[in-house]
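User: Continuing from earlier, I have the next pair ready.

Assistant: Great, send them over.

User: Here they are, in order.

Assistant: Folding the first of the pair now:
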Amino acid sequence: MNPLRRQHKDMSMAATEPTCTVGVELGNRSYPIHIGPDLLDRGDLVGLHLPQPSVVIITNTVVAPLYLNKLQESLSRQQIASTSIVLPDGEEHKNWQTLNHVFDALMGFRAERKTTLIALGGGVIGDLAGFAAAVFQRGTPFVQVPTTLLSQVDSSVGGKTAINHPLGKNMIGAFYQPRVVIADTDTLRTLPERELSAGLAEVIKYGLIGDAEFFKWLEGNMERLLARDAAALTHAIEVSCRNKARIVTMDEREEGVRALLNFGHTFGHAIESGLGYGEWLHGEAVGAGMAIAARVSRQMGLLDSGCVGRIDELLRKARLPVRGPALGEDRYLELMGHDKKVEGGRMRFILLRGIGDAFISDAVPGNALRSVLGGDGVDAR
């Protein structure tokens, strides 16, 4: 039985409280996720978690003009000194060269072991800054301030940090938990529509892997989310974070149930690396990857066509692809062979028995994979 399936509260009532806090319970490394508007003005929420009043903010050329000054001013009001490192934007820069640039800057600033690194940006910034924090001077404090929907609902929570390798996404990294996550929902107002849709892929994922009622709520509220309705977005972020926090608490280092969070990612990562990082957004690749995984599940007789249709329809409503690019069956299999979820030489896949009922399998027949990767799983957007 899927341990993530649970009795769910009534989703017909969207959250009315503008600010909420979700806890990630990991003993003495537990931390809060604060969700709501105007949180960039709440420097006190960061200050509570600093060993000393000194931080380095890592951000990028897109986010810095929008939010860097606001964050620095709010920190200054709390007598917290800050400096910044502004990196180029894009998945293609999540690599050793950019990481070394961060280290050069930290050395130039004479950053200390108790100097906190703050990631201000989306998933790329959060992953890269988190990995820098994990290894600089063998570990410095780390705070996540995610500014995209994808990073607010997924990548900022749980402590996965990494950079990419040309042969595989997120292949070089560490598990390293932040001290606090500050998810200011006002930052979603400036998010491009394509980025908003990409974030919705990870939101949909939580419904598919273990929360059928949330999936049903998404079917009825996708238009509100795309219109950036504040209550709907806050509700979706809170439910997503609660789902992920529960999983991370159960399995911090992905030795079991946490692997379910990779639903769609084995295929999605193959798409990203196969096309070249940055060609498709991560959420777009995951959306197509989830649709492919659903088709593989149907090919194996695990999932009925009605469920596949509902999944496709919700992805389309979210303006996400439901098929991957035609890389070729052999190329997909080659790229997936480099995936982190390969164990004992066998690829592990996250499949579905139904909406809200995901499981892990290393026994997917090659003909089922090839049938989908060479058939209705690819070559359209």
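And the other member of the pair:
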Amino acid sequence: MKTFKAGGVHPPENKFSADAAIEILPIPKRAYVLTSQHLGIPATILVKRGDDVKTGQLIAKSSGFISANIHSPVTGKVFKIEDVIDQSGYKRPAIIIDTTEDIWEDGIEPSDKIEREITLSREEIIKRINELGVVGLGGATFPTHIKMMIPEGKNAELLIINGVECEPYLTSDHRLMLEKGEQILIGTAILMKALGVSKAMIGIENNKPDAIAHLSILSEGFKGISVHALKVKYPQGGEKQLIKALTGREVPSGKLPIETGCVVNNVGTAFAVYEAVQKRKPLIERVVTVTGKAAKKPSNFMVRIGTPISELIEKAGGIHENLGKVISGGPMMGKALTSPEVPVLKGTSGILLMLKEESAREKISNCIRCAKCISVCPMGLEPYLLEKLTFIENYEQAESQRILDCMECGSCHYTCPAGRPLLDYIRLGKSKVSFLVRNRKKQ
């Protein structure tokens, strides 16, 4: 069975919501649309208080090369523009919209009718993906049109579609593959055309046999697209690990996947590309899993961007009396929320509700030199050393020890018997080293 070789762990999967069909969540009475829900520069607001907006209307424009357009996920009136707390706990500019009857912007086709014929040229596809604000839905939220613009001197040979969903608990991609499989494959074909490649590989972990079987049958009608079962191992969904598992190629330290001739996109991104190109529909909604041992009804919802997370929790049965933490994302790479009132973003894949006893941190003790953190690191790093170098503020040596190669998967933290806060310190060290690198480039 295909997989990556270096490191990795196998946490309990806990895919409680795997059999829960996607439900359409009601449109919120008030939507909170952040202008920074993509990697890069926040979008520039185009509307003001009191303006009427339609569903799918452009309300904030891309502000730079790495940025993305933001469209209204609802119809209504702009209540106000002010800073609201995002999923990181910081206040960010947001457009707050009081909703009315759902009326779509002219030219958008929101129906479920499948459009198979791809009529746009390569350039037109990239332009439309850019205009309609599509970003990577696997977690990084990198603007998708940028990935289609291959740097001079590089060559794209292969498109890889990530259907791994290796984070414990999360099932949004799994349900999307089962319920929107043909649209995902059409989106894959669109991305192939945009990249100018003739081959695409869809990687899915073998704990999703129904999705593997479903897409394998559908792919027979698409030239150059193949489906591949992968061994269950976290973090198989990382770009570098997925490329290694499917092709045997390795992305060099500090480099991007294009160095191997590969471009990686998530299945959710492929679906969003299908809707953008074939339906002229902006990225204004996505599938979000609400799950966990503190979730009364584990569910998968199709949610409008800007919906308060509290509304998803309420629809999934409400707050458990023994709730310990609400986490955006999975238990390995997700972030604990300061409030359930923060809004859904383009990158929100799941909401994990954890019981108090399972969310409490282990007592921290001295490192016992067991080297487990080294053995599980998928990037071949020494997490114990990076933690120590950050603690003593030796950022120059941390850089030389490749701290920026850390993908923040949390495998080291998960496996540490001493409860060391390895990932916390490495994240801090990465931010400090990144700051040093940026200043060095300015000189």
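Worth noting for the second one:
The chain has a mean pLDDT of 96. Residues 422-442 form the longest helix (21 residues).
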